[in-house]
Design goal:
13 helices, single chain, alpha/beta, 2 domains, 17 strands, 4-stranded antiparallel beta sheet
Length: 454
């Protein structure tokens, strides 16, 4: 069987054996919950509750702050204790709603009640998804309702479920493909109902044969949905790479997947769509992989959004030894954590502990021009030359080298024998280029307005 894939990429140690065979455990939080108003791409949500209000499971506590934004939903019942800045995973503070959990888990009216999807219009489905607070749960956090509302819905050819889960150590999507495949297929069918010309694809890497077998078995009588088996390689799950592997189509940083006729969502996001639309369950939980060589009980946990990482760690048995590094997410694209007293958000896919911080073991050396970074880059960039412009903070040169096409996957840093912090420098430069673009756009706008006045 030929496997779908893309050119280049890398094969890091997977580490999935620690948690992939552990069934998902539902965890109910005990302490207060913290809901940052910025846990998605776009404008922060706006609180619609005040201190002292009692809230219910499934209740909207903050509304979308703009077109590119998403509401925040309470995952417990209890009382609004405070609305104040709280620490989040990157070490900064974000305005948050703090709820004192009464541990009763009383829910909104009709929470969990079955809904006949066939009687809903496309507009009603998109509004349900929006009001449910669903965002991309693979890490990007893009509001899903916006993604499901492209300019030309008739030009969408594929709705793709990203079951690649190529990031090392993460196994939450794999467990959902095994444990809740009906919800994955149900959510995909809801997506397909919005796009009359589209076919459904569930893309799964070939290191997950059991998931392939289970999903294919459920789809044997379906003519609009198929399973595409991907070659195991990183970053196979990156949106651009996935679209290229599955459809042969290419997109760049100036395009959206919809521009290539594709809508892409990860497994947990698609399940959230099914839960919200068919069962009136707004997004109140996500699946989190707790893993690494310092965790007593590695596994996958269904966790209420807003739960503190420290509380989840305790549920997993705590540390067997003190880790040198703790990461929210995976080792390639995750974020090092300063504290565990921070909340799990909708985009928090994993808690990874590592007894050795291999990155800090080596001092970066000079580039030896071996070309390994070029051979690994899935975007066909030249990291060695990009790094030279980054060291000089030369925004124009970095832009001319198509630096914005970098997807920050970390492949170049991973293979670099000199341990040069390539990806970190590119992250800084990409932000500098975007800030410069924004500045130039504002200057052009002001100049145009001044011209009209004259």
């Amino acid at each position: 069987m030929s496997l779908a894939t893309f050119k280049r990429g890398i094969h890091p140690y997977e580490g999935k054996e620690l948690s992939m065979d552990k069934k998902t455990i539902a965890y109910l939080p005990k302490g207060e919950l913290v809901y940052p108003l910025s846990q998605h791409i776009g404008a922060p949500a706006k609180p619609i509750v005040k201190v002292g209000d009692r809230v219910l499971v499934g209740q909207m506590i903050a509304e979308a702050g703009g077109f590119i934004s998403a509401p925040i939903i309470s995952s417990v019942s209890g009382t609004v204790k405070k609305i104040e800045p709280r620490l989040v995973i990157n070490g900064t503070k974000c305005m948050s709603i703090i709820i004192s959990n009464d541990e009763k888990y009383d829910s909104i009216e009709n929470f969990g009640k079955h809904r006949d999807v066939s009687k809903l219009t496309a507009k009603e489905i998109v509004k349900i998804v929006s009001d449910a607070g669903i965002v991309g749960m693979g890490g990007a956090g893009f509001p899903t309702a916006v993604k499901l509302s492209p300019k030309n819905p008739d030009e969408i050819d594929y709705c793709i479920v990203n079951g690649s889960e190529c990031e090392p150590y993460l196994t939450s999507d794999y467990r959902m493909l095994l444990e809740e495949p009906e919800h994955v297929i149900g959510g995909l069918k809801i997506m397909l109902s919005l796009f009359k010309n589209a076919k459904g694809i569930i893309a799964i890497e070939n290191n997950k044969p059991e998931a392939v077998k289970v999903v294919k078995g459920l789809l044997k009588d379906e003519d609009k949905i198929s399973v595409v088996v991907l070659k195991t390689k990183y970053p196979e799950g990156a949106e651009r790479m996935l679209i290229k592997a599955v459809t042969g189509r290419e997109i760049n940083s100036k395009m959206l997947p919809a521009d290539a006729g594709c809508i892409v969502d990860n497994v947990d996001t698609v399940i959230a769509i099914d839960n919200a639309v068919r069962f009136n369950r707004p997004l109140v939980r996500r699946i989190v992989t707790v893993t690494g060589d310092c965790i007593k009980e590695p596994g996958n946990y269904a966790v209420r959004v807003g739960t503190l990482y420290s509380e989840l760690l305790e549920e997993a048995g705590g540390f067997t030894k003190e880790p040198e590094k703790i990461i929210s997410g995976g080792p390639m694209m995750g974020q090092a954590m300063y504290s565990l007293d921070v909340p799990i958000t909708r985009i928090g896919s994993a808690l990874l502990t590592m007894s050795k911080d291999k990155v800090s073991e080596y001092e970066p050396g000079p580039c030896i021009h071996c070309g390994r970074c070029v051979a690994a880059c899935p975007e066909n960039l030249v990291p060695t030359l990009m790094y030279k412009t980054a060291k000089k903070m030369d925004v124009d040169a970095f832009r001319s080298m198509d630096g914005l096409e970098c997807c920050e996957c970390g492949s170049c840093s991973y293979v670099c024998p000199a341990k040069i912090p390539l990806t970190q420098s590119f992250k800084l430069m990409r932000r500098a280029v975007m800030d410069d673009n924004k500045k130039k756009a504002e200057e052009a706008k002001k100049a145009a307005e001044a011209g009209k006045e004259n």
